[in-house]
Amino acid sequence: MKIGVVTFPGSNSDVDSINALTVAGVEPVTLWHESPELGGVSAVILPGGFAYGDYIRAGVIARFSPVMGSVKDFAASGGYVLGICNGFQVLAESGLVPGALLRNRSLRFAGHLVNIKPERLDSPFTRAATGEPLRVPVAHGEGCYYADDATLDELERAGQVLFRYVHDDGTPAIDPDDKANPNGSLRAIAGVCNAAGNVAGLMPHPERMSEEVLGNGGGMQLIKSLVESAAEWEKAGRPAPQLRIKVEAAR
Amino acid sequence: MGARPIAVLDALRFGDPADPHTRHLVDGIVRGVGGYGNCVGVPTVGGELVFDPSYQGNPLVNVMAIGLLEERMLILAEAPGPGNYVVLFGSTTGRDGIGGASVLASATFQDQDPSKRPAVQVGDPFAEKLLIEASLELIDRRLVEGIQDLGAGGISCATSESADKAGTGILLDLDAIPRREPGMAPWEVMISESQERMLATCRPENFEAVREVCVRWGIPIALVGLVTTDGDIAIVEGGIGPDGGPNPGATEIARIPAAALTSDAIVHYRLATPPTRHRQAPAPGIPLTAHDGLPERGMDPAAVLAALLGSPNLSSRRWVYEQYDSSVQSNTVEWPGHGAAVLRVKGTKKALVATTDGNQSVSAIDPHLGAQLSVAEATRNVSITGARPLGITNCLNYGNPERPEAFWQLQEAVRGMAEACRALSVPVTGGNVSLYNEYPGGAIAPTPEIGVVGLLDDIATLVRPPFTTEGDAVLLIGKSTPGMAGSAYAALAGISAEDSPPGIELDREAALQSFIREAIGRGLVASAQDVSGGGLAVALGECCIWSGLGAKLRLGILGSPAIELFGESPSRLVLSCRPRHAPAIELLARQFGLDSNVLGSVGGDRLSIELTGMGATGAAEERGSRIADALDVSIADLRHTWDHGLARALGVEQGPVHDAEAAGTAASGKGN
Q: Do A211 and B332 touch (CB under 8 A)?
């Protein structure tokens, strides 16, 4: 099984996704932004970085790249797509996941460790997680998750909120000014998925915390989740999209 | 050279942190370092931030980059093979960098003179990221014979340096150089320092492949010249023909031997005169009377410690480094904030340990000693992790070398650095200079910024500064020597005008570093921290703050309590170990000819240091009259002071310590 990692000009965390996949025992395939060819991969990661320099707004140019046309088709056909950091911004700009990522409330780049907690363990992107808070890095200037109240209510109702920023004890850092919420995201949202449940994005970098030597190996839980889901989809003969998350599981 | 940049360290120096202009500069420069480093995908893993009045009109930004080079990738900055093509790729050439380094660096800033402002280059990290990737691909595929980046002096320097190094010449087609704007004069094109450009040499048959790589990365590329045999840089207007000579009607507008601009350039012998106010450092080992007398009985050393830990130069740098991406590339083992940076080397058990240090306050008094201390401290910070320093690089920041006093400072620093490096057996593998750092208010304090990279053979043996375990023994290795000038304590409390900085015995420093590497290699050491800024008390305070563990200690006072607690004499370190290992460590220290003292043990939630006089039992009544009260302070209080010091000094907002960061300290201690 192969998992693709897209390289846009300006991607810089593609090496981290490639490293994490290699550690997980999966063959990473690099996908070039100008080529619509996905090379038969079973899942796609949109990595962190500054695609096309991000001079106008993070992710806004990347959505027009040839590879993103293929990624949209891939997602529509039921394939798994995970956007990390800049990848999340690209997914949001492309309309593949709901919401928008605004500048951090501090108006400064945030580069440090945070705690995030999976909201549910029955999603394709969290199935291998323990449910305990994960301690992973953030490194972004535009990570403040925003959507209007009606959308946020709907996301919570439908179980599309996958990760929240939490304190050590696991309680969410709902107050946008809480330091445990690194960018002031509404309702402490760190990651969401689409309604079908096969496209997800998050601002923190689990792939940079996928080995014990780097501090802890907790991020590997999320990489493994993606690998397992992609392998299952591959084994089932790449079925058409179906609802991958159970709405009744929502709080 | 073919190396992948894997880390950056930034050493920043500013004037008064309370001054609005300084605050504006700190904010902008931190954003600049972060914005560029974060975008090119190279983690910023360490560095320094120092405030000193001498930088008020002339801040310093020194950056050290570390690259990892596969041997097969090694390529030199030269232009070999007559007949080969000379290509220029990357950004176009504009007026934005005309005389950048050469004009700015060879004249002092005058507020009334706006002519230098346009000389500042405009950086584009996105273009740089593409340039890095394209260059590494060209080297990896062996499509280029030599490659050189365009820095100070632009195309003039790049062509003459790479030709001279290869013993060749270059015929340059001026019209072929892509311009950012029309109407540029030939000299402007030749010395523009527009950023994000590379000059490479390739075989003619590889040119199409080179072009393809650049086009794929979206980078402009131009064939701008040919490698020749005559050793000259010749510049032609009107184009070069297919035979390799100037087109008919073309004019050669300049010709100069490449060597004349580089290896055979004019050497200036400047006048060097020591300033009259210069005082000799005390000869090593000769005790001086301490003039400070602080803190004495009735004065609270804990208050001095808190003031030092909360001071702009010794407090947490968290507000700065949290604006940097420190984790990209998945190699960062030790993040900024707690001593040297540690990066694992993928696919091996090895790690690289890196640090920067520069002692400007002693250098201002004695540039020779200051440079020695800088080398000693930087290498010591690498050695205390268990790593072997592989080499140093340096940036020598000094005043106008045409002034005999400034040139003397530079000369003395180079002499001091060389002596220290010989004694410590570390090569100087590179470096650069930043001269003319003067402004109407005066010159900067001489600043020898030293960067060190060390190698740890097995990352499992890594030792960090924070204490790790309750009940561990705490040892001080090395002994203090008199002299408080140039110390953080002196800046805070003031000292006698006659006092001098503490001297250094380089043999002892070498022995100390060998000792700690040996002790760590034998698995005897749980934590190790060097004694430097703020002295022993600050070193112990940091071991406590970073671990959340207190310590109960006794310290024998031979002379002044201030010297023992806050003096910055070099060649000392604090370590902790299992109590059963303490005798072995003391024996090993003796074998290296070093003093060692068991100070006490790790435990509790307070840092408590009882000060005992010579031969005293420790009972307060028996203390000599000059012995200060005991130091006893809660770790939580120290931590709060240390964590908020910088934000308070700069008047910026900083939230409470992040939950995850505190957890990180404890979790990362697991590895020990």
A: no
